[in-house]
Amino acid sequence: MFGFVAPDHAALAVKPFLEIRSRYERRTDRDFDEDVQDNRSHITDRVRIGVDLKYGEHLSGRLQYRYGHEWIWTPLKNHSKERSDVEEAYLSAKLDGGAMVKAGRQFVNKGAHLLVSTATFGNVAYSWEGVRFQKDGWDVFAGECAIDPAAEHANKWIAFAAKTWELGETMLLYHQREAPVRDVEVWTLDHRYLKSFGDLRVEAEAAVQTGHNQRKDLRAWAGRVKVCRDLKPQKATVYLDAYAASGGSNADKTFTFDMVAGSLHALFGQMDLQGWRNVEGLTLGVLFKPHPALDFCLEYHRFGLFDKADGWYGAGGGLNKGAHGAFLDPTGRSGRDVGQEFNLTGNYKLNKSTTLNFGVGLFQPGGFVKSFAPDSHTDQFWGYAGLTWKM
């Protein structure tokens, strides 16, 4: 049986924490059309405050509140928006036998964050109300989405059971969300494999899906292989990441992979223009740390459509859009070539409490994207700089 007994002398330990973050971002030519004035600048400010609780060796908990504010400047209008939530409010218990149970509102991440991720780059992160159980390689969770970064009112649920064994981690994931005609229901069978060969590391992940997306049955798949090599004298890591995800549909079925609640930032590229849906992609990157307080990441990405009659999906899972509407050509005449992206990001620790974050990105459109503005297509630029302070 599971159980625990707190010692008589146990006292409640309370540790407050505070995090303040401010970031400026600039994005130009969001729809790759120089004739459309859609440049955008914004400042995002976020404050997180809370307490960590601990009682004896077996009980702990967290209460965390977040307030976020955003100033936005565009050619059409200047405006601001704000949002505040209790992000975490949970109790965690360590049971006899090594089992862990966490109940309440909590952040949930799995694996490489491709299917289940907190997604903390923006002001608002995914949070779930549910129960999580972990023991002997098992990881089980069921809950309702309490905070959805993309919607004021979350109407989605997930449940998963994962087991880590000698060949990696196998997970069965169920996802449901409300939709106008019929709820979306998706079953995903996912396996993730990690293996090291000296300085070489291999990470592979594959997933298949079944279910329905409103009126159509869903049959989809996705895969990814990432190879990393450490260069110790240079204090760097180089990596190659190849990935694909199905897309397309017919009268009765959709084959477009469902990202469930995966990462909303830097999934494939820092500019968040590519998601794990209807894609064939390749990434080359290098991480290097020239100083203990400084690190850089340089990446090159090449993107294409898996099914040229389906659309181009962003990191949030929705179709990328411009002044013309969605980047979607059902005829397939626009081809598969989405384009290429270059990124440089970094972090510099100013002191024990304060970190400077910065980055730039350039996206050069391919034939598919150019076809939506054949006479006025242009590149998209993105950059940011921010400060994070933690108590």
Question: What this model shows, in words?
Answer:
Helix content is 1%, strand content 59%. It has 391 residues and is an all-beta fold. It has an 18-stranded antiparallel beta barrel. The mean pLDDT is 95.
Structure in a nutshell:
The protein is an all-beta fold. It has 1 helix and 21 strands.
Q: Number of DSSP strands?
A: 21
Q: Structural class of the secondary structure composition?
A: mainly beta
In helices, the fraction of residues equals under 10%
Counting structural domains, the number is 1
* Average pLDDT figure: 95
CATH class: Mainly Beta
The Rg value, from CA coordinates, equals 22 Å
Helical segment count: 1
State the low-pLDDT regions, or none.
Answer: none
How far apart, in Å, are the first and last alpha carbons? 40 Å
H-E string: EEEEEEEEEEEEEEEEEEEEHE
Based on the structure given, which CATH architecture is correct?
Beta Barrel
- Into which percentage range does the β-strand content fall? over 45%
Rough shape?
globular
Report the CATH topology name.
Porin
Largest sheet: 18 strands, antiparallel, barrel
What are the main properties of this structure?
59% strand, 18-stranded antiparallel beta barrel, single chain, 1% helix, Porin, 391 residues, mainly beta
Topology record:
Layout: E1 12-28, E2 40-55, E3 59-73, E4 78-94, E5 100-106, E6 127-135, E7 138-147, E8 156-165, E9 168-177, E10 184-197, E11 200-213, E12 216-231, E13 236-245, E14 253-254, E15 279-291, E16 294-304, E17 321-322, E18 325-326, E19 337-349, E20 354-365, H1 367-370, E21 380-390
Parallel strand pairs: 12-14
Antiparallel strand pairs: 1-2, 1-21, 2-3, 3-4, 4-5, 5-6, 6-7, 7-8, 8-9, 9-10, 10-11, 11-12, 12-13, 13-15, 15-16, 16-19, 17-18, 19-20, 20-21
